[in-house]
Request: fold
Amino acid sequence: MNRESILTGLLACTVVMAAAFQSGALAQSVAAATDADTTSSTQPNAAGLDEIVVTARKRSEDLQQTPIAITAFTQQELENHGIVSVQTLAGQTPSLSFQSSPYDSVGSYIGMRGQQATDIVITQTPPVGIYVDEVYYPTTLATQLENFQGVQQIEVLKGPQGTLYGRNTTGGAIKITTRMPDYSGVHGDVKVGYGRFNAQTASASVNLPIVDNRVAMTLSGQYSKDNGFGRDLSNGANLQDMQSEAFRGALRLDLTDKLQVVVRGEWAHAVSTQEIEDLVYVVPGFSIASAAVAAQIGALTPADYGILGGLLTTGAPPAGSTPQQIAAFFNDVNKGRTAFASNICPGRQCRNVSYPLASQLAPFGLAGSVPFGPKTTVDLSTASVVANYQFSPNLYLKSITAYQETKRGTVASTSASPFLLIDGIGDEQDPQQLTEELQLGGNALDDKFKWVTGYYYFHLKGYDNGINTELVPFLPNPIYNLSQFKDTSNSVYGQGTYALTSTVNFTAGVRYTSEKTNLTLENHNAVVCQVDGVPATGAPCINSFGNSFSNTSYTAGFDWQALDRVLLYAKTSSGFRAGGTNQRSDPALPYAPETVTDYEIGAKSDWFDRRLRVNLAAYHSNYKNIQRSVYVNEAQSFVTEIQNAASAKINGVELEITARPLNALTLSASAAYTMPKYSTYTGFSSTGTPVDLSGNAFPNVSRWQTGASGTYTLRDGLGALDTTVDFSYRSKVDYQPDGHDANSAPYTIQGGYGLLNARITQEIAAWNAKVSLWGKNIADRHYIAGANDFSTQLGYAYTIPGLPATYGVEIEKSF
Reply:
């Protein structure tokens, strides 16, 4: 599918929607006669599209009157599209992208408008912030958890969030709001479901008024389990399975007519096996991986190791090596390559892998007491207290206090084969976060001036420990990457909107942030210390590295209500991601903050009595000191390292169309065009040689993303019958552009592909129940959802297959 066909399709979709309104008026008399006999509480609003209230600017306002790019999902839309986790939002959100983590099935890399995370480490701030009930989530370790039970609305904010949002992200923010306890009575729901791959789900929620108009509570919980869609051929175990539980609770205290306190708690737990790895490419000739495999199959001789050591340290055989010795060496290594390449997945559609067995750890002194078999466990706990005091209708004070802890333990292999290459046998992360935000805001000057100001405190501490075995490059195992991290940030901010006329507003805001980080390292292998500034032996293997940063971010813009339901706006904004110190490299190299300055124009419009909604945004971003996670072969081991790779410019356009040509039918279409281009990008080869990478693509960024959906509601004798069909498409994506050698690129690039989903829900009004049938990727499109390309460092590449066709049934009972 090329650009012209995409544009033609969008234009045709728009014309069809518009034409439908011309006939819609004639059809209303027929539809009204039908609807009059079957009216129920689920009937779409006959006046047109519903108003969506958002709080993206720290105050409640109509989405169509908010002069920033936002995609909003109501609770009903989340249900219609089967959106159950952060990871599943991307299909219907322009410019939002997800990449499955190469190391487990629970975490993911999130990107927006070309700004993409390339690792999950607690020392690096993600470019897209996640906020649940105004509480920031510092990592993406649990973004594939199905924990949306009790969620009322989601707002996806595009572009830098450098003024109003606590962690000052460069790409955007995902703002999740859960249901508030109410005083309308005891009510709730229970859901159970079953699907392909033995997928089992159960959830329940209840609202409990305790003291009339003063105290109420909500409780919700959910459980999900599936057997995964892959197999470990070494032992027959399931791959990419997951079992998770999640609970939420909220206590609402309206202590006086002016003071409200809401106490919330959340706990989630998940156990999963690793993502499936399909080996797709092995470098021809000599590579570290093929030499490692040759050693494991007994092909290398003692004479080979002298030549191997020279190749690894200097790139050339040691002096005195004879042509016969070198020829014998490469012959032995080629036997390893042949053995390794025999595991290549034909057609990239295997959906299985053979992982190394625990018995293979014995030569490294790790047999018996050390667990193996890829597995991840994640526990997420959050507690918050939000207090709001309304001094008057025009002045309020809010306090948001929160604590969160995530515990992740992983046993993982990135070998994509039965051989030991890079295997983590005890990775653990434990980020703990304390935040406090004070907001003071309101209206002034006869409501012409709307303002908010505040203070934000952020403190993160935790450890990130890894215990690995590596036959690359043949050093004493195990290898310990042990670190403790602290990050303390203080910021003050203010933003206001002033009505210059009855139709023109000016908005300006600024945030100043001061941040300090400290990283303590105890990295070592079985023999020597590997910490920068510490001798290899004879001294305590520990050292600390501190960094300090400050930043001033801003936003400014005008919006003009050109017509009654047409808003035009222009704005600029900036944001930054803090720098830090690399936790795995030696020397412990620092990296600088990343900054973005964004320029955006947009239009938001409703037409035909609010039956057609068209929102458009175009932007240009100046992106500097881009933080990229790259793979490096160091003298001690193979590590990932964050580098300030480049500067770039990103241009893009986002279009969202929603229509209700008939009361029973809602249609939507969206498109995003993203064009990033490096201005400069100097990377480094596996031996540390500078390499010009300015022509590379951005990781996990498609030039085109489009989506379309339709929901039709038919009234029958049982109640409402809702049918939703949605389709999402993304053009070519390169998951690892900075890791390619001359031949590997085609193997980790996914061509353009589309996914088709459907959901049918029958209401049984007499029982206050619903029965749903659903299917995702119902055309069973084969695609890759992630990849690692180690071609220039180790000598191979693998891909992560996307979810195949799934389907199931769900039953819901409300009370």
User: Anything to note?
Assistant: The chain has five helices and 46 strands.
